[in-house]
Amino acid sequence: MKGGGSFAAMVAVVEQHMAAFYGFLPQASAADHLIDESQLAVALGGQPPPPGRAAVFVNSGADDELFIGVHFTTPLVEALVEHDPTQLLGDHNLDGFCHLVEEISHFHLLLNRAAVGRSVSKLELEGQGEIDKLLFAAMFLEQQCGDSHLMPLARRLYDGARIVAQDYDLYWQATRYAARFWYALLQAPGEPRRIDGKLRQLLRLQYDRAWSAKLDALPSVRQHAA
Questions:
Q1: Helix, strand or coil for residue 209?
Q2: Are the CB atoms for 81 and 10 separated by under 8 Å?
Q3: Do 43 and 35 contact (CB within 8 A), yes or no?
Q4: Cα separation, 149 vs 88, whole angstroms
Q5: Sign of CA dihedral 94, 103, 167, 124
Q6: How many CB atoms lie within 10 A of CB 119?
Q7: CA 145, CA 142: separation in Å to the nearest integer?
Q8: Chain segment 138-190, per-residue pLDDT in tens
Q9: CA 110 to CA 93: how far, in whole Å?
Q10: Do 171 and 124 touch, CB atoms closer than 8 A?
């Protein structure tokens, strides 16, 4: 797609971290499923794309062949290539990085659920994306500067969240779920300051749960973190 190999490499770096953290073997690479505006137009049959700077598109074709494409708008791609967040993440590229993480999260959760014959709702996709954008921002910050900045990131991403999407209630529920999870975790005694094995174990458990089970587990997050 437009943006060149450097953007595909950026996508590959993020999804490698995601697969390693959650312990799954990728069913496919999001970097191999990037589509530009012209490819998106073909996939949508000439219909106008939904608003937004990034999205994952899934269509079933003839003989039940599945098409899955990950689209990022050209301005977003160019901004991320110019200021690569996998090399240096900061205020100037945090929003773009979050879009990148969310779509890669959607892509792999869709494929992981399909691989075991499980369905996944749009709400679960968005909820996982909200969890992952903070997680991987913290992970890259920890690698780059030695501090995960977990609580400041939570304040930035959730307290200041402004939802402008048409499905307001859906995105509000997803954001609320992620905020409740992270704040329960970060306000527990001995709250995590690093992306360590205990945090990984807890997040892997949440990742594998169905949406209703994720919500049911929220009251015990603080207990498991202690």
A1: coil
A2: yes
A3: yes
A4: 14
A5: negative
A6: 9
A7: 6
A8: 999 999 999 999 999 999 999 876 666 678 889 999 999 999 999 998 887 76
A9: 26
A10: no
